[in-house]
Amino acid sequence: MGITGEKLDLDFVISTGDNFYPKGLVDVNDPAFEESFTNVYTAPGLQKQWYSVLGNHDYRGDALAQLSPLLNQKDSKWFCLKSYILNAEIAEFFFIDTTPFQDKYFTDPGDEVYDWRGVLPRDKYISTILNDLESALVESTAKWKIVVGHHTIRSAGIHGNTHELVQKLLPILEANNVDLYINGHDHCLEHISSADSPLQFLTSGGGSKSWRGGYNWSNRNEMKFYYDGQGFMTMKITQAEVEINFYDILGNVLHQWRSSSGSQAELAGTGVVFTAIVTYLSFNLGIVGLTSDGLLDLDALYVQVLALFHFLIFMPFMSKFWLYFTS
């Protein structure tokens, strides 16, 4: 992954949640932060800003610890909030907190204890996320709209479709012409298309605990790619095109998909290019600025404390933009 990141000269990395196994962090001083993040992702090509969401395993520890600025002080690559927006001009990324949507974590948690601070009352929390997301999508002028969450909406893996997200989130994404929904949770790599809209479902969950079997998908036309092993995904975005690549752990390309927008004349001049890696580790809006070198500008940060913390991260125009998704 590090070699691929260096070759692509990526701009930042996105983690799709479950950042620390098996039960998140104990607190901000938990050595697991260094052991599972700082001391692991040491490759020069990965020394970029990482944008993360929380997964269900993160909620089994001190969920608020992962949101603390103290972790960013320990490792400036780290950035995690529950729900926020990354505005990259031609593309806008909407990170949402999907764990509270799952009924079973509340009704049948078994022996697990979840850190629901800031989430209760649950119905109000979910309603705020959905209302703010819909408002932000309506107002967005970005060429490409991309939503990132931990849980699947549609998946052929062990966890399969998430009923609550199919009911509550999917209609909002389809109504507002979202191009991509990217998630982790299922420990596989997959690409599923939609028969009802241009929306593509991309799972980058191959960071650990792969080779689990359990494939279950009946519509062969919708299933574009499925890989039960470990790997990661990259994304390259221009004004006219999105290119997705899935890789195995050796950096071999397993699947490539492109979507073009606009005329051939527009495609001839790609303009600004963004690149990133997506990986899976085991809105009343505040504003976070990014400096020209891609680091957080803490002087530009302000926070409005409401039912949720929602932030807008503004990224100035850059010559290129690579995304690297990991889980």
Short description:
With 327 residues, the protein is α/β, with parallel strands linked by helices.
Topology:
Blueprint lengths: L1 H7 L3 E4 L16 H7 L10 E4 L16 H6 L3 E3 L2 E5 L3 E5 L8 H4 L14 H18 L4 E5 L14 H6 L1 H6 L4 E4 L5 E4 L7 E5 L18 E5 L3 E8 L2 E8 L4 E8 L3 H5 L4 E8 L4 E6 L5 E7 L7 E5 L7 E5 L1
Parallel strand pairs: 1-2, 1-14, 1-18, 2-3, 4-17, 5-6, 6-7, 7-9, 14-18, 15-17
Antiparallel strand pairs: 4-5, 8-9, 8-10, 11-12, 11-14, 11-18, 12-13, 15-16
Subcellular location: Secreted
Enzyme class: hydrolase
GO cellular component, one term: extracellular region
Description:
InterPro entries: Acid_PPase, Calcineurin-like_PHP, Metallo-depent_PP-like, Metallophosphoesterase_PAP. This protein is α/β, with parallel strands linked by helices and 327 residues long. Helices cover 18% and strands 30% of the residues. It is built from eight helices and 18 strands. A ten-stranded mixed sheet has the order 10-8-9-7-6-5-4-17-15-16, with helices on one face. The longest helix has 18 residues, at 122-139. The termini are close together. Residues 262-271 and 283-327 have low confidence and may be disordered.
